[in-house]
Amino acid sequence: MSGARPAARVRSRRELAAARRRRAHSCWDHLYAAPLWPMHGANLGTLLRTCDAVGACLAVPRLPWVPEAVARGNTLRRRSCVHWTGDQLDWLRARREQGARVVAVELADEAVRLAELPPARRPTVVVLGHERTGVPPEALELVDEVVEIPMVGTGHSLNVAVAGSLVLYKLAGLV
């Protein structure tokens, strides 16, 4: 049969490990996932796993339940790059003052579509809002741009872990 494609060969764990970085991520202050108003602990664990995959750091507020949720969600079983923000707005202001690009994931009139978002070329913070209320207006005043994830279904938005993962992969230049 001409034109038939060969069956896909699954790479072994050894082959995968050889192709990836040799040691765990160390903070290089380039890309942050910042779910600064989290609602569900499970989403923090999922987002932490994505951060490891793309070489990003997770920035979260030290709400009473967040440290345990992050620890429980770290399925990699090694130390991950987590930054504790303290006051969310002060942390965002400090990142901007240090020259970071601040990108909010939100539905807004001036939002760029995810497909049009260029890869991060300088330190970038991806701000993710509350699952029900989104990014607060006072935080939107601190962002450089807003990105929107197009949807054709009936829902209004994706959950924080899924939305953050899509944007992180795009900013990391991996899709």
From TrEMBL:
<dbReference type="InterPro" id="IPR051259">
    <property type="entry name" value="rRNA_Methyltransferase"/>
</dbReference>
<keyword id="KW-0489">Methyltransferase</keyword>
<dbReference type="GO" id="GO:0003723">
    <property type="term" value="F:RNA binding"/>
</dbReference>
<dbReference type="Pfam" id="PF00588">
    <property type="entry name" value="SpoU_methylase"/>
</dbReference>
<dbReference type="InterPro" id="IPR001537">
    <property type="entry name" value="SpoU_MeTrfase"/>
</dbReference>
<dbReference type="InterPro" id="IPR029028">
    <property type="entry name" value="Alpha/beta_knot_MTases"/>
</dbReference>
<dbReference type="GO" id="GO:0008173">
    <property type="term" value="F:RNA methyltransferase activity"/>
</dbReference>
<dbReference type="InterPro" id="IPR029026">
    <property type="entry name" value="tRNA_m1G_MTases_N"/>
</dbReference>
<dbReference type="GO" id="GO:0006396">
    <property type="term" value="P:RNA processing"/>
</dbReference>
<feature type="domain" description="tRNA/rRNA methyltransferase SpoU type">
    <location>
        <begin position="40"/>
        <end position="169"/>
    </location>
</feature>
<protein>
    <submittedName>
        <fullName>tRNA (Guanosine-2'-O-)-methyltransferase</fullName>
    </submittedName>
</protein>
<dbReference type="GO" id="GO:0032259">
    <property type="term" value="P:methylation"/>
</dbReference>
<keyword id="KW-0808">Transferase</keyword>
